[in-house]
From TrEMBL:
Descriptive protein name: AarF domain-containing protein kinase 1
Record-linked PANTHER family: AARF DOMAIN-CONTAINING PROTEIN KINASE 1, ABC1 FAMILY PROTEIN
The UniProt record lists the keyword Transferase: yes
Chain ranges of the Protein kinase domain: 145-457
Lineage, highest ranks first: Eukaryota, Metazoa, Chordata, Craniata, Vertebrata
């Protein structure tokens, strides 16, 4: 009897193994015990590496710094492999870390950046399953044509080009089928592992990462929420005729499937594409800065995932104007009025190099005594440049290298700051770093025009706030007059900069010099 039971068990196990091997819907990576075991093992190996590799080396020596960099690199590579294997939420969190260029050691950001191009793809069968479950029809019933190869695959979904039965070309965003079920378990697992690591390394303060994932991931997994965000930002920024946001087709959209108007173009960091297509690189950088200054300082509703795959550029064949196409509207940060005002005033102080106000508003935003570090994190400039004025000189290669090396040297203080600042600040820091990456690729970083646009938006935002709080008609008129004068000064300064850099300006300056010498 026992022998028969053993044979039956063996046959069952063998059959199950063959079924799992042959069934495309089953993947060992999807089983909880495999995912948990892999995450625990990776965390243990990384922890052991940090504990043992640096133990016998004197702190602060060249050998210590070299070994620390090697440990950072090994750990980042192990973390990348974990993200690629466990996929979904792990890739999403890894991408977030990879975007923090000036806040984390370069070994981590450089290694984890590749996760934007290594996201998994769902199979055709899985796509058909999601569409069938959510829309109640087969792909061939809904679409005249449907491209099997996705336009792009991300951590939570992938996008396919298709043509509807009425001839409209659309982009179909389809959620990976297993992400929804795995996400809450993955976040809990990360939370437990980070708590364990913190017991071993008390300075390790990364709980903010889990808290952000807990808050934002359910929203990103709801594509109807994403569609509403897209419509809201399109309406909010309708005055910018260069901005294009794909229209949502609500009749064929669900929480896991989003149908949008199809739009294409080159990635915003592709300088060569812009030059080939006659697109003014400086204009694109300036307009992108305008969009984000308006979102952050004036509206307090911010698209927080501007990596190059989500921001495209295209020259309109009829008008010749360059358009910015904003995609992927799942991740937005809503800023409270009090936070937005403090943030406005802090940036005004940073642009004017008003150190007393920098200290005041940094402290109000939770930086405490670490306000110099906070100012450097916000601007990605050295403390010397912050004191001198961040608009006074462009970022040099040596200064950029100094900031990146400081991210490793001051990691405990940086993580402490990230834990102390309001949660609204975290996604803004990520957004800032992504935008700086685009500016660096276009060679337009720290241009005077970007600071002028920020100044304009800050003045408008603060003036609007002050008028809303004033009961006196005279006081409101006074605020409006001050606002108009401040904006006029900025326009005059911008005209001066344009003349200074133009051929006409050079002629005027030469003429004035001749007149001066003749007198």
């Amino acid at each position: 009897m026992a022998r028969r039971a053993l044979k039956l068990a063996s046959l069952t196990a063998a059959t199950s193994g063959i079924y799992m091997y042959g069934n495309k819907f089953l993947d060992p990576n999807d089983f909880g015990i495999v995912r948990v075991g892999r995450a625990i093992a990776t965390t243990a190996v990384i922890t052991y590496d940090y504990l043992t590799s640096l133990r016998s080396v004197p702190y602060g020596t060249e050998e210590y710094e070299f070994l620390k960099s090697q440990v950072h690199l090994r750990s980042a590579e192990r973390l990348r492999e974990l993200c690629c294997s466990n996929r979904g939420t792990f890739i999403k969190v890894g991408q977030h870390l990879g975007a923090l260029d000036y806040l984390l050691p370069e070994e981590y950001t450089r290694t984890l950046k590749v996760l934007h191009s290594q996201a998994p793809q769902s199979t055709r069968q899985e796509i058909e399953q999601v569409i069938r479950e959510d829309l109640g029809k087969e792909i061939k019933e809904l679409f005249m044509s449907f491209e099997d190869t996705p336009l792009g695959a991300a951590s939570l979904a992938q996008v396919h080009k298709a043509v509807l039965q009425d001839g409209r070309t659309v982009a179909v965003k389809i959620q990976h089928p297993k992400v929804q079920a795995q996400s809450s378990k993955d976040i809990l697992l990360m939370e437990v592992l980070l708590l364990v690591v913190k017991q071993i390394f008390p300075d390790f303060e990364f709980m903010w990462l889990v808290e952000e994932a807990k808050k934002n991931l359910p929203l990103e997994l709801d594509f109807l929420h994403e569609g509403r965000n897209a419509e809201k930002v399109a309406y909010m920024l309708k005055n910018f005729d260069f901005l294009k946001v794909p229209r949502i087709y609500w009749e064929l959209s669900t929480r896991r499937v989003l149908l949008m108007e199809f739009m294409e173009g080159g990635q915003v960091n592709d300088r060569a594409y812009m030059e080939r297509n006659g697109i003014n690189v400086n204009e694109i950088s300036r307009n992108l800065g305008k969009l984000y200054s308006e979102m952050i300082f004036v509206n307090g509703f911010v698209h927080c995932d501007p990596h190059p795959g989500n921001v495209l550029v295209k020259k309109c064949p009829t008008s010749g104007k360059a358009h910015i196409i904003l995609l992927d509207h799942g991740l937005y940060q809503v800023l409270s009025e009090s936070f937005r005002m403090d943030y406005c005033r802090l940036w005004q102080a940073l642009i004017k190099a008003d150190m007393k106000r920098v200290q005041k508003y940094s402290r109000r935003l939770g930086a405490g005594d670490l306000y110099p570090l906070f100012a450097c994190m916000l601007t990605a400039r050295s403390w010397e440049s912050v004191n001198r004025g961040i608009d006074q000189s462009p970022v040099s290669a040596s200064e950029d290298m100094e900031i990146r090396s400081n991210a490793a040297a001051y990691l405990p203080q940086i993580t402490q700051l990230l834990n102390n600042v309001p949660r609204q600040m975290l996604l803004l820091l990520k957004t800032n770093d992504l935008l700086r990456g685009i500016e660096s690729a276009l060679h337009t970083r720290a241009s005077a025009s970007s600071f002028l646009n920020m100044s304009r938006c800050c003045i408008r935002a603060v003036s609007t706030y002050q008028r809303s709080k004033s009961l006196s008609l005279y006081r409101r008129a006074q605020i409006s007059l001050t606002e108009a004068l401040s904006l006029w000064q900025i326009n005059l300064y911008e005209l001066f900069l344009w003349l200074k850099g133009s051929q006409l300006g050079n002629w005027v300056i030469a003429l004035l010099r001749r007149m001066h010498h003749s007198t």
